[in-house]
Amino acid sequence: KTLRVPIGDEHEGTLNGVALSADGSLLATGGNTGKSWQDSCSVYLFDVATGRMVKRIAASNLVVRDIRFSRDGKQLVVAAGGRTGEVAVVNLADGTVLGRHTFSSSVEGIDLSSTDRMAVITHDGGLHVYQSPLDQKPHKFELSDSSPPTSCRFNPRGDRIAIGFSAVPQIQLVELADFSGRVLTPVARMKKALGLSSVAWSMDGKQLYAAGQSGAGGGKGKRVFGWGDEGSGPVSNFIIPAQNQVISILPTQHGNLFFALNLWGVLETDSHGEPRYQKKMDKAAYQYNHDLFAT
Hints:
Blueprint: E1 14-20, E2 26-32, E3 41-47, E4 53-60, E5 63-69, E6 75-81, E7 85-91, E8 97-103, E9 107-112, E10 118-122, E11 126-130, E12 139-142, E13 149-154, E14 160-165, E15 171-175, E16 180-184, E17 198-201, E18 208-211, E19 222-227, E20 235-240, E21 246-251, E22 257-261, E23 265-269, E24 275-280
Antiparallel strand pairs: 1-2, 2-3, 3-4, 5-6, 6-7, 7-8, 9-10, 10-11, 11-12, 13-14, 14-15, 15-16, 17-18, 18-19, 19-20, 21-22, 22-23, 23-24
């Protein structure tokens, strides 16, 4: 099923973040959404069963970067960025903003743990960890690399965070017990531009995965790296049959992996990279015939 958001000139309708509620009934998405006809960017909420948009929430004056539902489904956490950054905590029932966190640098990503602990990464290399989305006293941690972080994921237990970077072939693990950091570099020699921008944990937390930029598979596909023993084990890797950058990884409870591929679509593989399912995205380019298309 393909859901459509309102579009317009230039970047209007570009989507950066998407999230499903815990029960799978609601989908939230946002990006450069609504800015061309109002003073803020919106998050659009869709009923998954019908595909209908059911609510629009004006979340931030900045472009939406990432979205998460709270564990109880009553709140929506919206990360936004540009020259500066902010995270808004929204009450889903009436769309009111319950709290807001501001940053001097663009917010690039967020994640919530199984207990609603919140992690925020900023373009200047900062990791900010809150006990809850409404907590106002974060623990701040400076990441070790000068490349901007692009993704962060709690392990299922919620005591370790993995961070991916846009332009370096490494990821960083942060232990929340003492906020110590450890850098994982999969191979001794990789081109600096081949960043591992996407990270994910297996459903049981025993395996950590990372993938990212074009060319990491030596022209044969994209190379996916994995670390066992909850991220502390030796590195392994496999190649998936894809030619586009991996922009997101989603493990399933059956041990398979879904990969979102930039400008291509979705690929599902088993834990060794063997394809199980693929879906190319629709090629319709409505931005070029806006005179003939109405929303």
